[in-house]
Specification:
The structure is a homotrimer.
Chain A lengths: L14 H14 L4 E3 L6 H6 L6 H5 L4 H9 L16 H13 L8 H14 L10 H12 L6 H7 L2 E5 L9 H8 L7 E2 L15 H12 L6 H17 L4 E4 L11 H12 L5 H22 L2 E4 L3 E2 L4 H7 L7 E2 L5 H11 L7 E3 L5 H11 L17 H15 L17 H21 L5 H19 L7
Parallel strand pairs in A: 1-2, 2-3, 4-5, 5-8
Antiparallel strand pairs in A: 6-7
Helix pairs in contact in A: 1-18, 1-19, 6-18, 10-11, 11-13, 12-13, 13-15, 16-17, 17-18, 18-19
């Protein structure tokens, strides 16, 4: 079968609405891509390393791809998960498994993204299948030999304008420094401060991390005050290196503050490795409160990605490590959880707080009402499992009536799959065009208003929420 | 830009469905408005006081309007929140802020309501903007000088047939008495018994309220039995003054009954100001159980509006007071919460209980199943943040398949914004017409059935749920 | 009014999409019906007993029908609930009540199912109403005299290929044996192991059930180990009798395992009738963990139907017993609840676990992510209150983007209303055709892919999830 993405794909089928959607989409489709949160390794850009093979580029790092195959009985090891070097045979075999099972992805965005990137960037014109696996593999492998498929060239071809990575607070950010200092590359690639494991005092190995933090910051972390000072120090280091945001993903987004004395006591318990699970949660929530305070001071944007049961299938974690596709979302609560921090800093000039969720119930109930009152709160667009056309349309339908078009984050790809970035952003632009078109077709918006609204969604919002004026 | 609401606004865009929707809408668009729950001050009607200026009429009292501006950095004080008298300059300035930021309301019902009321009642023909602010302001200010813009004349122009206000249990209801006794006004305006703060024994100042209650009722309220007798007394007073319902808004809708001995003990603790937060919740839930019992006896309809974190942004509450736009919804549970009261009174001839929610998840899961079994339970239509076209359509889609067309409350505007009442009811009629039209277009309903269904939604349901036969 | 179901009913109204839906539906509309979970009494088939009258066939056993009438003030006794024999007058009167109130069912699937079965199987050509009640009653009563309306003949006319009943673990399964041994009937009717009440150690009369279990299995059930051995024994008995699955419906789907010592202690407490409510829940969750273990060994598919407040209206339960329409759903959680069992058995070759829910929020948040990773987890389609066109469409929209088309259960009618089975399955086929058609119309799927997808939904999924290859 031929592969040929339709120019009207993802637009509503009603002819009137589709026609309006087409016009709105044409206004934004060529806008440069702003990607303020993702997982591309900075080393790729710093060293402009050629990609080695189709599997380690397109399959192994992408848990969206792997998990579906796993649910049909494929072993993660067959796909190279947990492996860094591949023989030609291993890489080709994994690719054959993917293509032979391509039908499983029907109705999912993986199919959409992959077919678009194969078509647009690798010149593939046949649908993946057992029969076409080798042909497609060879075609991609051939491309990867060529200079225009190296990371920096792709950055340009992808029309990227801004790319943030995700980094450990103790990271030296050497790759980012290399990128900044290399005048031959004019893209913008910045780090993101991701302190999760430092804020989980019940976690195994946490006390050791405090040692690393002390070393990286040069600040004694044996006290609660020292811990916070070291955090401030590393945030400043990241900010100086170009970071615009911090990212946080805990089981819940709680921000309840402990008294200094209680915090000190629990912090000491944690260092001694004898903190209870409840106390560790309480201390973590107080640490999050402090992160909000710091953000209200240093102005780094906070993105919150809570509500996931990490490594739900323990044996897969034991064998392959984290991020292999067995994280499962949990119901999440924001109204109570964020109240302590918002009562104190919600009106702050510098604070931008962007909650993301996979619990769609909070969009109309909690996040839109918060973002419709607090100037510091922006609604994160659908993320991870719900970063897909219908879920995106539900999102707009859930939040726009309360928060309008200006209080959302802009599209976030949050991906490890570099080549899927343009297709992901394109999905968002198409779906948002369709949503706004519906409002015009139903005479809830005039066409001139719609044209401004779609530009706000694609350009205005990420610039506003992530404070990008002056950065790009 | 011109302002000209389209006659087909809010109808589905599919031509077949739209045509059916238009026909169904034509059957109900001119029906008199029944407004069984809202916040219009009775004094306005009693004294027929002229409105003074556009801002204190359209902006200051409407937290929907204020909160969006606040989220973009406007101070509530700039909009007159917390202020009762305005200089011409203050009023005009606030109005300019609103118009200059009109684009923020795109996609929200505030834009829809306001543009419709400006067009229909104030003759405005230009879209609000920085440029048109003064022109629109002058036009409205001019209208407000004229007798046809006084509250009673508007009541008639709005095609109102029934309007309930919201009143304190100790209120003398003197304005309602004045309205009833004034034969020159033939509208129906009745009070609603709203005992919330009397049922929150952990609240500051609660013991003092018990004093007021004793005074108003002439009943000793130093015992649990006395408290309930005093409540019964005031409910009777309201009923005699024309009230048809009581309204309740607590954090949760719990109705668990304490033994008399436990209730007495906690009641005494509360009077002594030493009740714990958990005990206060338990006592409140037992008080709510008693309210259900009373309703099953005196027949006043109960509307429940639970599940809101009031005054989430503490500093705004401290500065401006309640109801300024920083109440944030919470997830809510009804199945367990209402079970004790429904087990005892769910089959009662006199009880009508109408739960409202902003937690859309309960519609298909809890409220439709309850209203589809209990003759005493009706489903409240979308309220507050979700009182908007798409949320209303989701509501019908969520509850109709279980509860049909006859078990919902009828539209409730619940508004402080008097002039928005007709536009709000019109949105509901249009959206419901669109929903029913979809069923016809999909051959799930014949046209004659649909015609009866839309009349049920607009006329039959509020009359049935609020027991209005014989009242209007 | 005439009754004439439209050939395009339930298809989307957009002409392009409808045309595609029609084509997809034509590919599956005549597929034999697979019904792997329901409540048809096996005795009906074993004895091929003629149905006696329209009311006891169509009204009394169907709580969907009764509950709506009850919500409008009809007494359940008027409909024959709790009654097994009917005079002509009683039966006719109940039928008249139903027909006179037919308008109440507008928008609900009851109307849709009933009108379709009346039209297709009883030749009714007029819409139910007070005026047509007797005519329809007589027509059905006349049919029921004829051999082609006996249970086995209907099994054939309904195009059933597989029908599972629901049975007590101690049941002798004699009716199933009779069916199997009767060579004159070639349908497939199998039992389902439903151990709920045996797994509720806090339930009144539970200790007595343990006696029954001991007797049925011949195994001493006075120890925790004995209890589990007895369960294994009865599961094997059911499996030998053709059972393919076990069914479980508790308040929550928890599977947390107790240590053997703790389980033993609580089990003894329960036998002694002195287990606390919390301990009974803990023991039940450990029993469920064991059921998952057993399923991973004997390969019986597990269907979970948790999250219902049974007999919410206590007086109705007291008067009429269970299953009379006053069960109300509860919010439900699966991610935490299933983790212990999935961590240990999620990768097992033999385990198939199918969670059903009436809490729609878990579809995109919990069930689709789980089924998109675990090969043992399949997503149950909408059930009970949400087994209706719009809810079904929401379901596909919620889960397909994460789990694709291959990880759902296939349609489950779960019904006591035998004659509604074909109409129920037909609704599912129509709605799924409409959903897949939308993906084609929006260029998210090619037509050849859509044709395979709809066949997967109707045929492939129930065969895969319920392991029916080799059975039918």
């Amino acid at each position: 079968m031929n592969l040929e993405p339709h120019p009207d794909r993802l637009f509503p089928s009603d002819p009137t609405t589709r026609d309006i959607a087409r016009k709105l989409y044409s206004l934004v489709k060529d806008e440069p891509i702003i990607s303020p949160h993702g997982h591309v390794p900075p080393q790729w850009i710093a060293e402009d390393t050629p990609f080695t093979d189709p599997t380690s580029l397109l399959i192994t790092p992408d848990h969206y791809v792997n998990r579906m195959l796993h649910s049909h009985g494929v072993q993660l090891s067959e796909l190279g998960v947990g492996q860094t070097e591949f023989t030609e045979e291993q890489s080709r075999n994994a690719f054959r498994i993917l293509c032979a099972n391509w039908w499983l992805y029907r109705g999912t965005p993986v199919k959409y993204w992959m077919e678009n990137e194969l078509y647009d960037y690798f010149g593939v014109r046949v649908r993946p299948s057992a029969e076409t696996a080798d042909e497609i593999y060879d075609q991609i492998a051939d491309c990867l030999q060529r200079p225009e498929y190296r990371p920096r060239a792709l950055y340009k071809r992808f029309n990227l304008a801004f790319l943030a990575t995700t980094d450990d607070p103790c990271d030296t950010l050497e790759h980012h420094e290399a990128i900044r200092e290399d005048e031959s590359f004019d893209g913008v690639v910045v780090p993101t401060f991701r302190p999760d494991k430092y804020l989980e005092p019940g976690r195994e190995g946490w006390a050791e991390l405090m040692g690393n933090l002390s070393e990286a910051s040069g600040i004694d972390t044996t006290t609660w005050a020292g811990f916070n000072a070291a955090m401030e120090n590393r945030r400043a280091y990241f900010k100086a290196a170009g970071a615009i945001s911090t990212d946080h993903s805990h089981r819940d987004p709680g921000t309840a503050r402990l008294s200094d004395a209680d915090a000190e006591r629990l912090y000491k318990d944690a260092l001694a490795g004898k903190i209870s699970s409840d106390d560790a949660d309480a201390l973590r929530r107080s640490m999050m409160y402090e992160q909000v305070r710091m953000a209200s001071e240093d102005g780094l944007v906070m993105t919150l990605h809570p509500g996931v049961y990490r490594n739900h299938h323990t044996p897969s974690f034991t064998k392959y490590g984290a991020d292999v596709g067995c994280d499962i979302p949990l119901k999440t609560e924001f109204t109570d959880a964020l109240q302590p921090a918002l009562a104190d800093f919600g009106d702050s000039e510098n604070l931008h707080l962007i909650p993301f969720t996979m619990d769609e119930t909070v969009y109309s109930r909690e996040l839109a009402p918060m973002a419709g009152f607090y100037k510091s709160v922006f609604i994160g667009v659908p993320w991870w499992f719900i970063d897909a056309p219908e879920a995106m349309a539900r999102f707009r339908g859930s939040i726009t009536e309360t928060a309008g078009f200006t209080r959302t984050s802009g599209f976030i790809d949050d991906t490890r799959a570099y080549c899927s970035i343009p297709a992901r952003h394109d999905v968002s632009r198409r779906v948002d065009s369709g949503y706004v078109a519906k409002l015009v077709a139903e005479h809830r918006l005039e066409m001139d208003e719609a044209a401004e609204a779609i530009k706000e969604l694609v350009v205005g919002n990420p610039r506003r929420a992530f404070k990008l004026d002056g950065v790009i």
